[in-house]
Amino acid sequence: MAFDFDDMLAKIKGRQWALADFDWDAPGAEMIDPELHAKLKPFLADLMWIENVGARGFAAMAKKAPTETLAEIYRYFHAEEQRHANAEFALMRRWGMLDGDELPEPNINVKLVIDFLDKYADDMSLSFLGTVIPMLEVALDGALIKFITDEVKDPVAQQVFKKINADESRHLATDYAVMELLGHATTRKLVIDFIGGWAKPSLIIGTLSYVPLLNKMRDNIVEMGVSEDRLYAAMERFAAVAERAPIVNRVPMYRLVRMHGRWVIDRGHKYHLLADSLVKVTAHIPERFLRNPSWSKALTYEPAA
Fold first, then answer.
1. What total of structural domains would you count in the chain?
2. For residue 5, is it within any domain?
């Protein structure tokens, strides 16, 4: 059955929510295990910025969408990812992880990816963005949100992540449908998109920032207590797209991203020799070269409607 983008857009419009929907002062903030609390702080700081990586990707995808309906869906997804970041920001404040109006600082690898997307995302094809962004959502949001929902008993966090998870489910359903749509392109277009994309020096820069980000986040997730089985399960969800719709295999970037994702979760793969080296190298980049983007001023924990 063909995916109904108009129906999805109607669902998205009807299921919007706001930070003002939650009682941020309700009891339950003290229910987090102290050991988990300490591990959650740096990870949530990174996660709220990674949500904005997704937002920036969707903003660029809206400009590449083949129909106005899909463009509008992507504009909603852009806003939803920003809302997720703000909700996670509000949870950090609720749990006493921040000092006053402190804005959490992402790690250097997150900053590198944000800087790359700010500069180059609008020049990337839909086949590139439309395969990389879903993989990030599956591997990071999928595995982590399930873990937090299971381990954090705070009822407000449960409510918040239930909303976030519902949004992400609609994102992924649309992402998978778009990958199937991309698979129907002519062989010539698929080849031109793939070779043309990799011919740009900017994509090499992006890869050199993307690889250490995934490696560092993978290890951080495991260190926080997330079972590696969850990461494998999340990645298999991405791989299963081509099982349900074999035509997706015609998209070269999908096949490359799927292969790379399997390398990332397999800690014994030789790929990690390169990825770990890049993590060490990027750790020495001076912070002054990577300032927070101007749109970071829009991040807020305030429960606006």
1. 1
2. no
Alpha carbon separation from 150 to 5, 146, 228, 279, 299 (Å, rounded): 32, 6, 15, 30, 27
Q: How far apart are CA 63 and CA 75, in angstroms?
A: 9
Structure-block tokens of residue 20: 């003002």
CB of 87 within 8 A of CB of 164? Answer: yes
Domain that holds residue 293: 31-298
The answer to whether residue 91 is domain-embedded is yes
- The closest of 80, 207, 227, 211 to 147, measured between CA atoms, is 227
Q: How do residues 45-58 score in pLDDT, each as one tens digit?
A: 888 888 888 888 99
Domain assignment of residue 26, yes or no? no
Contact 102, 198 (CB under 8 A): no
pTM greater than the 0.85 cutoff? yes
H or E segment to which residue 293 belongs? none
Residue 60 forms part of a structural domain: yes
